[in-house]
Amino acid sequence: MPPFTVLHVCMGNICRSPMAERLLVLAARQRLAKLGSGAALEDLLRSESAGTGGWHEGEEMNPPAARQIRVRGGSVDGFTARKLTSTHLAGADLILTATADQTDYVHALLPEASHRSFVLGHLGRILREIDTAALPPASTDPEGFAARAAALVAAADRGRDDKEPLPGDDLDDPWGRGDQTFQRVADEIDESLYALVDALLPGAPRSA
Question: Which of 29, 37, 102, 137 gives 20 to 30 Å between its CA and that of 174?
């Protein structure tokens, strides 16, 4: 069974979506360690990213974005920016955008992706209202993990009817700004991603 694939989308794919891509890997890896699971993260979850603009294609991550990942214990190895395509969207089980405008772009590029695409901050708020006890049991077996993840995305899609997007759900574009702005944006990404990891792999506290 292929891993559950999360695709992160921003404009240039050198700041916000790369931070989200690598911080999700870090958060999930930390959670598996807290659970004492011997499961390989690569068998459960794939985290990728792309940009709607495409003008930074092939570039490395923006240095202050990379610093935020490293300081939190993550890795930036092997990252190169790429332009978003419909093929990327078709291969993703969950699509998380930095802003509502980018969600609209996703819907225009692949309308059938609309039920599995969310602004990251909006999804974070939705997840806190979902009754995770109604989902399939949490599991570090690939098949069980995929079943819970798919059910979570479906529940989040239903849950958005009762929780409209807010302007504050959008992530500021930190490009060209200082480390303090990158830290704030990375903190906001972390907050929403930990809500996702908590729902997928409950049962252990967040790593300090």
Answer: 29
State both tokens at 62. 């923006």
Distances (CA, A) of 11 to 81, 201, 205: 11, 29, 33
Pair type for strands 94-97 and 4-10: parallel
Query: Tell me: the pLDDT tens digits for 57-96?
Result: 999 999 999 999 999 999 999 999 999 999 999 999 999 9
Query: Is 0.90 topped by the overall pTM?
Result: yes
